[in-house]
Amino acid sequence: MSLWRVEWLRLWRTRTVWILFGVFVFFGILGPATARFLPEIMESAGLGGELALPPPSPELAMSQYLSNALQIGLLAIAFIAATSLAFDSKPEVAMFYRTRATIVEILIPRYVVVTIAAISAFLAGTATAFVLSTLLIGAPDVLATLIGSALITLYIVFAVALVGLMASLMASVPGAALLAVGTLIILGIAGLIPYVGPWLPSYLVGGFDTLIAGGEFDYWRAILVTIVASSAAVWASIYLMSRREV
Amino acid sequence: MPTHAVEITGITKRYRDIVALDAVTLSVPKGSVYGLVGPNGAGKTTLLGILAGLRSPTAGSFSVSSSRVSVLPDTPKFEPWLTARETVTLSAALGNVPNDSDAVGDMLERTGLADAADRRVSGFSRGMLQRLGLAAAVVSNPDLLLLDEPAAALDPQGRREVLDLVTELRGKSTVVFSSHILDDVQEVCDEIAILTRGRLVYQGTLLELVNSVTRGYTYRIEVRGDNTETIEALRGCDWITHVGVEEDGVLVSADERSVLESRLLPLLSNVGVAVISLGPVERSLEDVFLDVTK
To answer: What percent of chain B has pLDDT over 90?
Structure first.
């Protein structure tokens, strides 16, 4: 039994891994399905003539998947990551770990396992959306989907690191999760500021749609900032948690 | 080679305006079972937290000569989705104990959890969690074991098992044992420290404590019939320091036991009362504890 195995067991036995995969795969089905059948659905609801809907396309299918999946999916990732990373929320459990292992030994498996689970769930949803879009509408650009997914993967790494940082500031699961989600929303709003936006991690989210729609790759600045910010968040969380008293 | 497992010098711990520990200095002999006694809020848990490295003192210093330290909190909790066996195995693995399922099984057996070994912890009662906490703490063969109220939630059988386990550890590990249950402290501890309102008011053996606090000696006398005459005679003696009247007896104190032994009986004989009983009053640890922490 190791701390790595404990983290895998946490995901499995608390069924959080199914919640993550369920959310992303559900939207992976819903995105292409609504893109393909929305005109018929609106027609049968008697709204067909009143709304002008764009024609079904692979770009629309993937875009619908991502916009829905990232909203609910990020919330799920934040709460599941906080459950693992905010381990001081139960002081007696924290005492068990803290008197037997260093903060680095405790935190690194938590960061890694939650991040791998979140990325795997996102990729499973993306694969589902890709296959369903290919079957119902047409195949999205493979390379653009791969690169766009890599950008979102990096964004998820940043989101988990942010949850860890918030857990080091607030020893509460909902508190850490909501602080992290709030910060992501503020970063998204800050991304609307000209010249600042392309430097922010939130800029990576737009890359998925832009690249699949045939746009240019303009994400090196955001990638660099996201890697630096994620590393700094992990380092800061280790530093702050090692100084915390329980 | 240090003879003390723990040396604490002038440790103070403040939480804003509250002084949890006030310049506490004490030392715990290696291999001993050391009792930490005090009323609620005395600072026992804070002191154990500092020794476990979970809290930092505001002032003062301490040294722990042990490399492996285990702590059992007063209300232990664990990952609810792990089984008891997995929890103890994890504790052993983190304590660098070689992968030995026999040691884990033996520890679960000794703490009375063998039948619940493969059940998830989420369904455990408080007493079972305390037993599990003890198993997880002891399985890693700690040099220093910090137990915060280890028997507080246990039934009499569980309490007996804990005390037996602590007694077995004497000489192999140093045990710092915080408890409200003075009988337990009296039974297993070699030395004790008494804390009250964050201050150390006594450190030493129980015998020394009882002797140091008991000023003088007290005898209890019971006579047949009215004892008014007896009380008056006792109050008239300058070698008697205190006369206390109870419902069916009289307490008499003097500075020296020999004085009471040699002069009390002749005095009663002179008064001419029929003595039913006469004997020394032993002060319990509880009496002494209440005196010291008053």
So the answer is: 29
First-residue to last-residue Cα distance in chain A: 25
Residue A48: the pLDDT is 62
Give the pLDDT score at B74.
86
Tell which B residues from 107 to 146 touch A, by Cβ distance under 8 Å: 136, 140
What are φ and ψ of residue B120, in 5° steps? -70, 145
For range B215-242, the mean pLDDT: 85
The answer, yes or no, to whether residue B294 has pLDDT greater than 70, is no
Domain range summary for chain A, segments of one domain joined by +: 3-243
Please give the Cα distance from B277 to B268 (Å, whole number): 12
Burial environment of residue A239 by CB neighbours within 10 A (0 to 12, 13 to 18, 19 or more): exposed
The residues with which B178 forms a beta bridge, in sequence order, are: B36, B148
pLDDT tens per residue across span B264-291? 888 888 888 888 988 887 766 777 777 7
Decide if B77 and A92 are in contact by the 8 Å CB cutoff. yes
What's chain A's average pLDDT? 91
Determine the distance from the C-alpha atom of residue B177 to the mean position of all C-alpha atoms in its chain, rounded to a whole number: 7
| A-to-B residue pairs, Cβ atoms closer than 8 angstroms | 56
CA-based nearest residue in chain A for residue B87: A1
* Chain A residues with CB-CB distance to B95 below 8 A: 100
pLDDT at position A236 is 96
* Planar angle of CA A134, A135, A140, nearest 5 degrees: 10
Domain extent listing, chain B = 4-211, 216-293
Mean pLDDT of A104-130: 96
Please judge whether B90 and A6 are an interchain contact, meaning their C-beta atoms are less than 8 angstroms apart: yes
For A93, the closest of B69, B71, B77 (CB atoms) is B77
User: Chain A: residue nearest B55 by CA?
Assistant: A245
Superfamily of domain B4-211: P-loop containing nucleotide triphosphate hydrolases (3.40.50.300)
Distances (CA, A) of B220 to A17, B7, B243, B254, B255: 72, 43, 10, 12, 15
List all residues of chain B from 57 to 76 with a beta carbon under 8 Å from chain A.
69-71, 73, 75-76
Q: How confident is the model at residue B110, as a pLDDT?
A: 87
Confidence tier at B227 by pLDDT (50, 70, 90): confident
- Looking at residue A24, its pLDDT comes to 96
The CATH H-level (homologous superfamily) assignment of domain B216-293 is: YebC, transcriptional regulation domain (3.30.70.980)
- Cβ–Cβ gap A100/B75 under 8 Å: no
Task: Determine, for residues B54 and A99 on separate chains, whether the beta-carbon distance falls below 8 Å.
Answer: yes
Q: Is B46 on the interface with A (CB under 8 A)?
A: no
Q: Inter-chain contact B55–A245, Cβ cutoff 8 Å?
A: yes
